[in-house]
Amino acid sequence: MKIVENDKKYLRDFIFLNEEWIKKYFELEYFDIDLAKNPYQIIENGGYIFTILKDDEVVAVCALINHDNDTYELARMAVKDQYQGKGYGSVLIETCLEKLNKINAKKVFLVSNTKLEIAISLYKKYKFRIIKQEQHPVYKRANIEMELKIL
User: Angle between the 117-125 and 88-102 helix axes, to the nearest 10 degrees?
Assistant: First the structure.
């Protein structure tokens, strides 16, 4: 297993895996389509995209979207179906938390949906706490917001 940070070579895989899981549970929204046109904007705006490779195959991805240099959003986490349940989600979160500590971020938040029970449990395992449980004002598919203060 290899973890790659901010490599343009894997941006198509990043979009593909995200669109695949979104379509499985929800539907693509304007913001998804817009991001697909230029996923590198996450990096250009001070964020990070992480890719996990297994034998040169992209198996999992996620992003840290910069909101103000102290606050980041853990977003766009996706693991290929056949690799789910094998700990890749934990590896992604741990990688993100290490990066956030290294750059002295103060807080990370995420938006999700309560029907994604396994994902919500994973976030709780890493001490994310629920701050809102209502329809998100931007994403139709989101109904929960969680955050973690970085020590």
Answer: 40
The confidence score (pLDDT) of residue 69 equals 78
DSSP-assigned states of every residue in the chain: -EEEES-GGGHHHHHHHHHHHHHHHS---HHHHHHHH-TTHHHHTT-EEEEEEETTEEEEEEEEEESSSSEEEEEEEEE-GGGTTSSHHHHHHHHHHHHHHHTT--EEEEEE-TT-HHHHHHHHHTT-EEEE-S--SS-TT--EEEEEE--
Q: Which of 33, 107, 21 has the alpha carbon at shortest distance from 66?
A: 107
- Are 147 and 131 in contact by the 8 Å Cβ rule? The answer is yes
Go through the domains of the chain in sequence order and give each one's CATH number: 2-149 (3.40.630.30)
Residue pair 100/150 in contact (Cβ under 8 Å)? The answer is: yes
pLDDT recorded at residue 138: 85
With contact defined as beta carbons under 8 Å apart, do 12 and 49 qualify? no
Task: Tell me what pLDDT residue 137 has.
Answer: 87
pLDDT tens string 43-101: 999 999 999 999 999 999 999 999 997 999 999 999 999 999 999 999 999 999 999 99
